[in-house]
Design goal:
Chain lengths: 741, 288
């Protein structure tokens, strides 16, 4: 770290300039780094460290580019330093495309000793792609054989391993003859065969090449690599390769993955953010199964591929399909949305339904095609996956990260489809009682929010009971995230209900009354756990914020979601919010009460007008509860009469004698919007603005006209909830009272 | 029920590893030969690590798929499906026998709970049993997973289900002299693994069960518990060890033996359907 830091001192570029005055390219590079450096000064320390690492890679590359003579590693600290830089960068983030030409040239031109060349070759790990040009350059160096045989072999192994990372292959194909000529080298032969196997196209199969291969086989005996190439030739041109190849085939090529495969995977994962899913998608259908896992339970979402089962069938009926336009469109070719639209009638689902999870186009398609078997296939697959891989159900399961990203993918698909998967619902019901509340917390809770709405009565025992147990015994942050989850669950249910009403056909076998009951049950459950949680957490402001967030949805269910249900918050939530010490929660409560009023008034009007026969009407109890709360609120915020007039049995009503004991003067006028602890800050500020000379803080001054000013002042402070509440529920009272005064 | 013992004899006295399988999608029994061809090409391709393989040519592993028509319970059950892999003998002469290297079969014995709820295009064969190298199981299983969009899971047998098995099988009548009823327990949380084997004379076990069972042909959880408690009490009287605190890992009787890891060996052809019925039930409960 120290060394890297020093490389960023302003002196460094000067040194470089002195050394390499004549080297134009180095000068150009340095110019660039200089300007980058000046930019860096504005960046955070973190970025700087990252950049300095790149900077040292850049220096190393320019060093290797211009190095002329053979340098001994032991004697040269500079070489040592640059070599280290290349290695560490390669292993951490991979090498950028432009680095390959420089390093490959150095390695294959034999400027350094083999130890250096080997180390350089081993660190040729691509961050993204390898430019074809660099490989072509390397092959031309290979042809002049300046480097040792070992390096040549290592290079070929490298080339085979990274073959898929080369950006284009046209020029490489043009070099087919060159590669072929290397076959005569006995040591290189197996690797050249493998490379040719990867490169060979039908047009490369020529009689003279076949002859050459057969000669080689006659000379060297039956070699599996030669056989491999021959069998490929035979596959392309059966009429030209007339020899019989043994049916029994061993592995053709030895595992030549070398030291790179693991490093490439690691770099790729790091660069992509550790998601095995995205990796599976990237590698597409050629993704080999990971050997370390059990075969039946890799948590890899299958890549989309057409149903081979049916393709095979099509081939048999080829004669029929030749004349029909009814051919199906393979999912592998589906890349764009217009393609989806064009082929929507002849698109077929992939052979493994699980692959739709990571394919938004197929999810679109799934949305259009309401086919039971699609959901059933997905249901079985997902159910088995979830159960088999769940870290808290399977002992010693080390794949928590993979499971997390799997849950994440499922959640995203649910959001996309705007519906929950039944396999997920069952999984949650089965495993929530066993869950510790920690493992994959946010992922699991998100899935809870997509539990489908159903009138099933087991939701209490399956969801609420286990959730309540965890809720009461976990931290405040867990409590807040559960409340957030339940809010989302409620919203999803309500949305789903709106869609059902709109579309006039109900796929769920829920009646409206069933639905109302299920929603009411959820709201009551949240009311109960909120009351308890506020006591447990000492009326925490943070917690209260999440609770009121939930009620913001509840108070609007009638108008916004057309659901004939309103549930008031329990006293255990209402009073802590009303007496809250901070204005944000009080403001939110005001807004909620305003919306309750709007909903109740609308319901009443509907009821009175009797335009349609109302199957449901709110019970009088709801109106009573609302009125009790309103009295308490108006008393608290406006008329200073909370202690006298509150009629809620759990409310603030207090005996006069008891109030007198508090020794507060003029009790009856001392609790309102001016004195409320949550508003005190505002009233002090207001007084200072209105009467800057008065230092006694005479709050009594806020009355009459000043009272109205004070209100205006509060509204400008962002207390919009308070504004709508006062304007809807109090304004008449206030005018009346002002008239009296 | 009236399966020809000859045709299913090869299923007996072999250790089968159990899997549950979700319903196969798009499976058609008329195309078994095509499937065999594709599966064999897929095995060859896997073994060659992704190198090109031509479908339909002679390959070193031969695959045969066939129906075991007799092996089914109710009307709703599909006939069992047998998969056999054999390696071609090196000598190319046609008269030499291929060597069977792996076999597996899908079956459903009174799996109505599953099959009656599944729409067409799905084939319910929830129980999969394999015998042979795990690597072949993996190749065959992966191919089925990809082709018919199904999921395989190892089917472990819980101690509770093992005790059911021992109770059911201990009470079965057998003509010939039966082998001992054996229960193997493993004691958890010891530094050294400790297994306790508890063997009972089959007639004693049957006598005990007969006193426990109230209605013939019907078994309740309570009866199974009483049966096991009696065995535990007897053992405790002699050795002062509470077997109920140990984990039951294996039971073997003259009918069949079962290990908690999900490995069974069926010994008596007469009881083959009965054993498969129980295993089908376990497989279905793992799927649903």
């Amino acid at each position: 770290m120290q060394r890297r830091q020093s490389s960023r001192t302003p002196k460094q570029p000067l040194d470089v300039r002195q050394k390499s005055q004549t080297d134009l390219s180095a000068w150009r590079k340095r110019g660039r780094t200089d300007s980058e450096k000046s930019l860096q000064n504005h960046q955070s320390a973190n970025d700087q460290e990252h950049d300095s690492q790149e900077g040292s890679l850049e220096q190393a590359l320019s060093y290797f580019e211009k190095v002329q003579d053979r340098v001994a590693l032991k004697k040269s600290n500079v070489l040592q330093k640059h070599l280290d830089a290349v290695e560490s960068t390669a292993l951490k983030q991979g090498l950028p495309p432009e680095g390959f030409e420089i390093l490959l040239s150095v390695v294959l031109s034999g400027k350094f000793a083999d130890t250096v060349n080997t180390r350089l070759l081993k660190s040729l790990i691509p961050a993204s792609v390898i430019p074809e040009n660099s490989v072509v350059t390397a092959v031309s160096w290979l042809c002049v054989s300046k480097c040792s045989g070992n390096i040549q072999l290592l290079f070929l192994k490298w080339l085979i391993t990274v073959f898929d990372f080369i950006d284009h292959k046209e020029q490489l194909h043009a070099l087919y003859g060159f590669f072929f000529s290397f076959l005569q080298d006995e040591k290189m032969c197996p690797y050249i065969c493998h490379l040719l196997y990867l490169l060979t196209r039908r047009e490369n199969v020529k009689p003279f090449r076949i002859r050459r291969l057969l000669e080689l086989q006659a000379k060297m005996g039956m070699q599996s690599h030669l056989q491999a190439l021959l069998s490929l030739y035979k596959l392309f041109c059966p009429e030209q390769v007339t020899i019989t190849l043994p049916a029994k085939m061993k592995t053709y090529f030895k595992n030549s993955e070398g030291p790179w495969k693991a490093a490439i995977t690691a770099v790729r994962q790091r660069n992509q953010g550790t998601s095995p899913l995205s990796q599976a998608v990237f590698l597409g259908t050629s993704q080999p199964q990971s050997r370390k896992r059990k075969w039946n339970v890799q948590l890899v979402i299958p890549a989309s591929s057409a149903n081979t089962n049916n393709l095979e069938e099509d081939r048999e009926k080829n004669c029929v399909y030749l004349y029909s336009t009814n051919e199906s469109f393979p999912v592998e070719q589906l890349q764009t949305f217009p393609q989806l639209l064009q082929n929507i009638y002849r698109l077929e689902f992939p052979s493994q339904m699980g692959s739709v999870l990571t394919n938004p186009l197929l999810l679109h398609y799934m949305n259009c095609v309401k086919d039971e078997s699609i959901y059933l296939r997905l249901y079985y697959w997902m159910g088995q996956m979830l159960q088999e891989e769940c870290p808290w159900c399977v002992v010693d399961n080390p794949y928590e990260e993979e499971f997390k990203s799997f849950l994440e993918a499922v959640f995203k698909a649910e959001c996309f489809l705007q519906e929950g998967f039944s396999a997920c619902e069952e999984f949650l019901y089965k495993t929530l009682p066993l869950w510790d509340g920690v493992c994959c917390r946010s992922e699991l809770l998100r899935l809870v929010s997509w539990i489908p709405l159903s009138s099933s009565s087991d939701i209490k025992s399956h969801l609420y009971d286990p959730l309540a147990q965890l809720f009461f015994t976990s931290s405040i942050y867990f409590k807040c995230s559960v409340l957030e989850t339940l809010k989302e669950l409620l919203q999803n249910w309500l949305n789903c209900n709106v869609i059902q009403v709109d579309s006039e056909f109900s796929s769920l076998n829920t009646t409206l009354s069933g639905l109302v009951n299920v929603v009411a049950e959820l709201v009551h459950f949240v009311g109960w756990i909120s009351t308890v949680a506020l006591r447990l957490e000492n009326n925490s402001t943070f917690l209260l914020h999440f609770i009121l967030g939930f009620y913001e949805t509840v108070c609007d269910m009638y108008l916004k979601y057309n659901l004939p249900l309103l549930v008031m918050p329990p006293a255990g939530v209402f009073y802590p919010a009303l007496l809250s010490m901070d204005s944000v929660n009080l403001n939110q409560l005001c807004y909620i009460m305003y919306r309750y009023r709007a909903n109740l008034v609308a319901a009443k009007e509907n009821e009175l007008s009797k335009k349609k026969i109302l199957q449901f009407k709110f019970s009088n109890q709801t109106y009573q509860e609302y009125n009790q709360y309103i009295i308490a609120m108006v008393g608290c915020l406006w008329t200073s009469s909370a202690f006298q007039k509150d009629i809620n049995p759990q409310g603030l009503c207090m005996d006069d004698k008891l109030l007198n004991k508090t020794a507060v003067k003029e009790v009856k006028t001392s609790f309102n919007i001016v004195y409320h602890p949550a508003m005190m800050g505002y009233s002090v500020e207001f007084l200072q603005q209105v009467c800057p000379d008065d230092t006694t803080f005479n709050f009594k001054l806020i009355k009459g006209k000043k009272w109205d000013w004070y209100l205006e002042y509060l509204y400008t402070q962002g207390l919009k909830g308070l504004k709508v509440f006062i304007e809807s529920s109090i304004s008449r009272v206030s005018q009346a009272s002002r008239r009296k005064a | 029920q009236n399966a020809d013992p000859q045709k299913t004899a090869f299923l007996l006295r072999k250790a089968w590893t159990l899997y549950s399988v979700t319903p196969l999608h798009g499976f058609r029994r008329a195309r078994l030969r095509d499937y065999a061809r594709l599966l064999s090409a897929s095995i060859a391709a896997e073994k060659q690590k992704g190198l090109a393989v031509e479908v339909g040519v002679e390959l070193d592993i031969k695959v045969a798929l066939s129906s075991l028509a007799d092996l089914r319970g109710s009307e709703l059950d599909e006939a069992a499906l047998l998969v056999q892999l054999s390696s071609r003998s090196r000598a190319s002469s046609s008269n030499s026998e291929d060597k069977l290297v792996w076999s597996g079969w899908f079956c459903s014995m009174f799996g109505d709970d599953l099959s009656e709820n599944v729409p067409e295009h799905f084939t319910c064969l929830p129980l999969f049993l394999t015998h042979g190298a795990e690597s072949y199981t993996s190749l065959v299983g992966s191919w089925f997973q990809k082709t018919f969009d199904c999921c395989f899971r190892r089917l472990a047998i819980s101690p509770l289900n093992l005790s059911w098995m021992v109770a059911m099988w201990a009470g079965c009548k057998l003509d010939r002299a039966a082998s001992a009823v054996e229960l193997v327990f493993s004691v958890p949380r010891l530094s050294q693994p400790l297994d306790i084997s508890y063997a009972i004379h089959p007639e004693d076990a049957k006598a005990l069960w007969d006193t426990v069972q109230k209605t013939p042909g019907e078994i309740t959880q309570e009866e199974v518990d009483v049966f096991m408690d009696c065995l535990y009490a007897h053992f405790h009287r002699h050795f002062k060890i509470h077997l109920s605190a140990a984990k039951l890992v294996k039971v073997s009787t003259a009918i069949a033996s079962a290990h908690c890891d999900g490995i069974v060996k069926i010994l008596h052809s007469q009881y083959l359907p009965g054993v498969l019925m129980l295993l089908t039930e376990l497989a279905i409960s793992q799927i649903q």
